[in-house]
Design a protein that fits this description.
By secondary structure, the chain is α+β, with helices and mostly antiparallel strands. It is 41% helix and 16% strand. It has helices spanning 3-13, 85-101, 109-124, 133-142, 150-159, 174-191, 212-221, 225-237, 241-245, 275-282, 296-314, 324-338, 343-350, 380-388; strands at residues 24-27, 36-43, 49-55, 61-63, 68-71, 161-163, 169-171, 252-253, 256-259, 269-272, 372-377, 392-399, 402-410. Helix 4 crosses helix 6 (174-191) and helix 8 runs parallel beside helix 12 (324-338). The longest helix is centred in the C-terminal third of the chain and has 19 residues, at 296-314. The radius of gyration is 27 Å and the shape is globular. The termini are far apart.
């Protein structure tokens, strides 16, 4: 690859903002980004130490010795002259091949052809663009399944195992097996194969609702403007993180956020947000049509580092169990408690298409004393007004001949303010 072609391809991969400085720059060896966090010190085998970094674009961890360095070009053609040019070219070429082939290089030629045909079929038939059908079928193919033999695929689905981030193997959950069966069912329709689909059922999950103070702590301790605004946006809109990641600037008008690109199973909708969130969003750079021009993987890696820091500061390991969706689960449960289990209100606020998805939020929350607003009524007119406003009477007493009626209700929060 020539220097001119290398320069053109590299500029398409990374946003080079420091070209006017005559110095050497540190780059992520995977995606070429110059934006990264320091991620602690790594002890080498010889006892030495080296600085580790976490890429803010792709979430890749690397050390200084693994990085690529590029010197500012000294001529008007802006050609890169570096000892790492050949390594960069190799990296970019391999990434291009992986993207074109869908990361299928290890599979046999006929299997790759079937998967490529299946990807085109899903697009042609109008399947949801973020469906996991292709990935699940590819996992079965990597496991050695013969896609043209239904019985072999059934066996592979039943016994399939995957590795987590710590390298431990786990079997698929029944819910994942069910989706894998639906994915292969679509493949069979494409190929005209008849088969009997196994009957897997999705397990009922119990939502673990974190304390609001822990959710606020993540927002408070975040030192990234983008992460702070992202978490606050999740808290006030109860949206799925995928819906906020695709949020565009044109969908924010004054203090109204429009969800125009809902996830599967959700409806479009609008939310009125606080002035605090509006100021957070306004402070973000407008370099892209999207408010958060990044990937879910990169944001999740940043959240993982943030949770470790907050858990260490608060000495509370419960912080480590919080995910982006915890904000939605907390919001839905609070709405259910605040409206005394009004299913239609919860369904409307969470934008569910099916009321079955709403029912899991209808459960009791044990409020603490400081989660209530309290007031007192002494006349029938005051009692009537408080009853209409949703206050609940919990006690009464007579003081100096005056009947005192004590009322309380949960404090308002989020979009219900």
């Amino acid at each position: 690859m020539t220097d001119k072609a290398l320069n053109s391809e590299y500029e398409g991969k990374a946003n080079i903002s420091l070209l006017n400085q005559n110095t050497m720059f540190l780059h992520c060896p995977k995606c070429g980004s110059q934006r990264f966090y320091k991620d602690g010190i790594r002890i080498l085998a010889d006892g030495g130490e080296t600085q580790s970094y976490l890429c803010r674009r792709c979430g890749y961890r690397f050390s200084k010795s693994q990085s690529l360095y590029y010197r500012k070009p000294m001529n008007s053609n802006h050609k890169f002259t570096s000892s790492g040019s050949s390594l960069l070219a190799k990296n970019l070429a391999s990434q291009t091949e992986m993207t074109a082939a869908g990361d299928l290089g290890r599979l046999p030629q006929d299997t790759r052809g079937l998967l490529a045909k299946f990807a085109a079929y899903l697009e042609r038939e109008g399947f949801y663009k973020e469906t996991s059908y292709f990935d699940l079928l590819r996992s079965l193919a990597n496991d050695g399944a013969n896609l043209l033999n239904p019985e072999d695929v059934k066996a592979k689905i039943a016994r399939h195992r995957y590795k987590d981030k710590n390298g431990k193997e786990h079997p698929w959950k029944d819910s994942t097996k069910m989706i894998a069966c639906y994915a292969y069912d679509a493949f069979c329709k494409m190929e005209g194969i008849s088969w009997n689909r196994p009957k897997y059922k999705q397990q009922d999950t119990i939502l673990i609702i974190p304390d609001e103070k822990l959710l606020d702590a993540l927002i408070l301790y975040s030192r990234s403007r983008r992460m702070t605004a992202f978490l606050q946006c999740l808290k006030e809109t109860y949206c799925d993180p995928g819906e906020i990641l695709v949020l565009e600037w044109k969908e924010i008008k004054d203090n109204i956020i429009t969800i125009a690109h809902p996830c599967k199973g959700h409806l479009t909708g609008q939310y009125q947000v606080s002035a605090r969130l509006v100021s957070m969003l306004t402070a973000l750079p407008k370099t892209d049509k999207r408010v958060f021009p990044t990937t879910y993987r990169a944001m999740n890696n940043c959240l993982r580092a943030l949770k470790k820091k907050v858990a260490r500061k608060l000495q509370n390991p419960a912080v480590l169990d919080i995910t982006f969706k915890s904000y939605r689960h907390w919001g839905g449960s609070m709405i259910a408690a605040y409206t005394n289990g009004n299913v239609l209100t919860v369904k409307k606020m969470l934008r569910h298409k099916s009321i079955l998805n709403t029912m899991k939020y209808i459960h009791t929350i044990n409020f603490k004393d400081d989660d209530f607003e309290e007031t007192v009524a002494t006349t029938p007119e005051e009692v009537r007004k408080l009853g209409k406003a949703g206050w609940v009477k919990y006690d009464e007493m007579t003081v100096n001949g005056t009947a005192m009626h004590f009322y309380r209700k949960p404090k308002r929060f989020g979009g219900l303010q």
